[in-house]
Amino acid sequence: FRTCTGLTGSLTIPNSVVTIGQAAFNGCTGLTGSLTIPDSIATIESQTFFGCSNLTGSLTIPDSVTSIGSNAFSGCSGFTGSLTIPAGVTSIGGFAFNNCSGFTGSLTISDSITSIDIGAFQNCSSITSVSIQATTAPTIGSNAFTNMTAVSPAEIHVPVGATGYA
């Protein structure tokens, strides 16, 4: 469906789908509404929803997801509300949520995270707080949390007694 601008309306991905390939919905600017990833998906690959700027409302990522690829949601500026990276996700690729300026409120990253790559949440300008629940610091790439202008500089909360955070 890459660059399928004629694909309009909401997108429902059924539970029978186990994999959504790289760049599957890249540039599908006609998609609108909230996006719920089904429990059957383990990986959100690179550029899967890159540039789907008209998706609005919430984004729900299930606990079944273990990794989010680079640029997976980059440019999806219409998402609103808080964002939770659920238990099970161990890695977030580079620029995965870059320019997702519509998210408001909090960003919560579960304790299963081990790596957050370069620019992962760069330009998420309406997020007001970041909470990383891992007691051991994940590897965090450069500029992962830059240009979050709702709070400048971005304030990141970690658990009491956590180690490895600088």
How is this structure best described in words?
The protein has 166 residues and is mostly beta strands. The chain is 0% helix and 22% strand. The strands form three sheets. A five-stranded parallel β-sheet has the order 2-4-6-8-10, with no helix packed on it. Strands 5-7-9-11 form a four-stranded parallel β-sheet, with no helix packed on it. The chain is globular and about 50 Å long. The chain starts with 32 loop residues before the first strand and ends in a 9-residue tail after the last strand. The model has no long low-confidence stretch (mean pLDDT 90).
In short:
With 166 residues, this protein is mainly β.
Q: Helices, strands, pairings?
A:
Layout: E1 33-36, E2 43-44, E3 55-60, E4 67-68, E5 83-85, E6 91-92, E7 105-109, E8 115-116, E9 127-132, E10 139-140, E11 156-157
